[in-house]
Amino acid sequence: MSAALKSLFKQPLLAARLAARTSRALPSAVRHNSSIVGDTITVREALNQAMDEEMERDESVWVLGEEVAQYNGAYKVTKGLLDKYGPRRVVDTPITEMGFAGIAVGAAFHGTRPICEFMTFNFAMQAIDQIINSGAKTHYMSGGFAQCPIVFRGPNGAAAGVAAQHSQDYASWYGQIPGLKVVSPYDAEDAKGLMKAAIRDPNPVIVLENELMYGVSFPATAGMSSKDFVVPFGKAKIAREGTDITIATYSRPVGFALEAAELLAKEGISAEVINLRSIRPLDLPALIKSIKKTNHLMTVEQGFPQFGVGSEISAQIMESEAFDYLDAPVCRVTGADVPMPYAQNLEALALPDTEVIYKQAKRVLNIE
Amino acid sequence: MLRSAAFSALRQTKAMSGKGPLFQAARAMASAAGEETVTFDFCDKTFEGYNIETPSRSVTMTQAEAIKLYRDMQTVRRLEMAADSSYKHKLIRGFCHLCTGQEAVPIGIEAAITKEDAIITAYRCHGFTYMRGASPVGILAELMGRKEGVSKGKGGSMHMYAPNFYGGNGIVGAQVPLGAGIAFAQKYKGEKTCTLALYGDGAANQGQVFESYNMAKLWDLPVIFTCENNKYGMGTAAGRAAANTDYYTRGQYIPGIRVNGMDVLAVRQAVAFARAYAIENGPMVLEMKTYRYGGHSMSDPGTTYRTREEIQHMRSTSDPITGYKHRLLETGVATEEDLKAIDKQAKKEIDEALAQAKAIPEPDGTELWDHIYVKGSEVPYLRGRVPEDVHYYNTAA
């Protein structure tokens, strides 16, 4: 990974600029279905609390990664953990992803529960053999003998201005692999509940976070304060109910989809926004149920268009009973099929935002 | 315990080492426990140290243990011969990498460690699987993809496991960081055990091996990085792949010992030494100089990149079983008849195991769906080859 990227986070001015960009107002939480207790919590804090609680609960849980300990985390997600748990359980690694991912998997084989942070999932490509061939497949190849209770976590997808090598969305890559579970939180509730569930899961779990969401605040819902609060895998969340079109997405684009739904509502169009939360297993029943109601599906992701999450959802919908309920083909809104450019205007042209989602929804519905 | 007898003997007999280049005939002494023991000496070419002293050149053990080493090597030899012929009869499919000629390494290692220590290696793993406690039936059945194989028929030759034996790994070099990770967990849990992470001369050039050296040294992990140097990485002679073929020095800041890997006693001695070092201090590198008679795998004749003369020479001068047999005869631990009886018994055991394994059926079709996830934590369903083919898991969500 790049030393250049690391040096970014030592510059307070740049960090502040990034933070300002990430805390743009997002749709109010009134459409959350859980009761609101008045406090707010950022996604970063939620992830931190999840790891803290699970480390307290289970002594075999430990954390490793670049800058997770003394630096308090490149994105401050592991802040305070070293102070609380000490260097045996919070381990700074050299910049050697293949090696430390393999060490983490081996430690998982032998009775510990590592949380392996990748500073971004772009760097995890160096470790992907360990994640997939050593981590995901070993339980099967060993006839159930070896287990790998590991969490691989870190930021996934586009950040801001970090260009082609630092912006890829890996949901479809990991989503393909039997033996892995893959989840991607949007808000703080997702982050806390999915992370706690991931740490408790005896299988290898990939948690695809989003760097631009770390600083975003959400209401702290009542359930979240329980030490056993988990969000189950394979269950999508209806982020906004609607009747005319289903917009299914995950991670940061959930926010854009909610904004687009607001714009559509002003024109009398009722969009149902589904926060998938879980890539593998995918909540197909929730999508089918929604399509039976709305008769239209649009998927949204930041990843490349070919062989992506939307492609998979389209295929599964076509193979299901939902096909008979569609009034239009499933439409995929994706990142552009280009390596992420640096210039801000080009970057914007490469990623779907609120405006793109809003316009495309109308197009799907054949509305001018 | 046998090991402690050997260690006390090591301390007692340290003064005896350096008694000349030729192998010395030893005398049996009655030990305090009343068990017959035997002392073996090593010639000075047996060990070479890199930034560390070498093990004692003398070792004492009970005669029972000495004989077990022979029996185990012979059994593994027979096991691999059975695998060879089964492969040629198309009972074994895919890849099959045999350790014929290298038997001293798995047997010597097991004799020097406890069941609580761990081993991980690559795909030339049948000998290790047996020594770690798997039965010959289980191993042969796994090779033939039968339901009572050690991995339930789901892994095959390259993916065999046993208690504290983590395979059986197919991707060259990947097992080395895994081994360092197992050692990390041993240390994390306060176990006072070590892990042997084995790799070949070909894998020794992998970047992840060096990443593992680095982290193991930084964190004082109790891992023994063990290079089985059989002179060829598949068809490539070691010198064509490695700028430095002194694999025991490749750990740079990690001490290393090169060992005559065709000598089961030398392997045992070096590993016992390394184990004590690793648990106390941190990583070590061992290089076992060994040799395989067969090709890289059953698909490789093994004669396009080396001469038949070389193979024949190694067989006749360095065979681990024949060499050890002479030691047992010379020290009076066993007679020709004793050893012939062991040979016959080993052949019989493996022949019977093979017959048993052949009679085991393949896994049920439903087992396709098992062990993708840990039982009780599966996803709701997984898809088969066509959309209509869906397997549901009954999990208490």
From TrEMBL, chain A:
<keyword id="KW-0786">Thiamine pyrophosphate</keyword>
<keyword id="KW-0630">Potassium</keyword>
<keyword id="KW-0560">Oxidoreductase</keyword>
<dbReference type="Pfam" id="PF02780">
    <property type="entry name" value="Transketolase_C"/>
</dbReference>
<dbReference type="InterPro" id="IPR029061">
    <property type="entry name" value="THDP-binding"/>
</dbReference>
<keyword id="KW-0496">Mitochondrion</keyword>
<dbReference type="InterPro" id="IPR033248">
    <property type="entry name" value="Transketolase_C"/>
</dbReference>
<keyword id="KW-0479">Metal-binding</keyword>
<dbReference type="Pfam" id="PF02779">
    <property type="entry name" value="Transket_pyr"/>
</dbReference>
<keyword id="KW-0670">Pyruvate</keyword>
<keyword id="KW-0809">Transit peptide</keyword>
<comment type="function">
    <text>The pyruvate dehydrogenase complex catalyzes the overall conversion of pyruvate to acetyl-CoA and CO2.</text>
</comment>
<dbReference type="InterPro" id="IPR027110">
    <property type="entry name" value="PDHB_mito-type"/>
</dbReference>
<dbReference type="GO" id="GO:0046872">
    <property type="term" value="F:metal ion binding"/>
</dbReference>
<feature type="domain" description="Transketolase-like pyrimidine-binding">
    <location>
        <begin position="41"/>
        <end position="216"/>
    </location>
</feature>
<dbReference type="InterPro" id="IPR009014">
    <property type="entry name" value="Transketo_C/PFOR_II"/>
</dbReference>
<dbReference type="GO" id="GO:0006086">
    <property type="term" value="P:pyruvate decarboxylation to acetyl-CoA"/>
</dbReference>
<dbReference type="InterPro" id="IPR005475">
    <property type="entry name" value="Transketolase-like_Pyr-bd"/>
</dbReference>
<dbReference type="GO" id="GO:0005739">
    <property type="term" value="C:mitochondrion"/>
</dbReference>
<dbReference type="GO" id="GO:0004739">
    <property type="term" value="F:pyruvate dehydrogenase (acetyl-transferring) activity"/>
</dbReference>
<protein>
    <recommendedName>
        <fullName>Pyruvate dehydrogenase E1 component subunit beta</fullName>
        <ecNumber>1.2.4.1</ecNumber>
    </recommendedName>
</protein>
Automatic annotation (TrEMBL), chain B:
<dbReference type="InterPro" id="IPR029061">
    <property type="entry name" value="THDP-binding"/>
</dbReference>
<dbReference type="Pfam" id="PF00676">
    <property type="entry name" value="E1_dh"/>
</dbReference>
<keyword id="KW-0786">Thiamine pyrophosphate</keyword>
<feature type="domain" description="Dehydrogenase E1 component">
    <location>
        <begin position="71"/>
        <end position="363"/>
    </location>
</feature>
<dbReference type="GO" id="GO:0004739">
    <property type="term" value="F:pyruvate dehydrogenase (acetyl-transferring) activity"/>
</dbReference>
<dbReference type="InterPro" id="IPR017597">
    <property type="entry name" value="Pyrv_DH_E1_asu_subgrp-y"/>
</dbReference>
<keyword id="KW-0560">Oxidoreductase</keyword>
<dbReference type="GO" id="GO:0006086">
    <property type="term" value="P:pyruvate decarboxylation to acetyl-CoA"/>
</dbReference>
<keyword id="KW-0670">Pyruvate</keyword>
<dbReference type="InterPro" id="IPR050642">
    <property type="entry name" value="PDH_E1_Alpha_Subunit"/>
</dbReference>
<dbReference type="InterPro" id="IPR001017">
    <property type="entry name" value="DH_E1"/>
</dbReference>
<comment type="function">
    <text>The pyruvate dehydrogenase complex catalyzes the overall conversion of pyruvate to acetyl-CoA and CO(2).</text>
</comment>
<protein>
    <recommendedName>
        <fullName>Pyruvate dehydrogenase E1 component subunit alpha</fullName>
        <ecNumber>1.2.4.1</ecNumber>
    </recommendedName>
</protein>
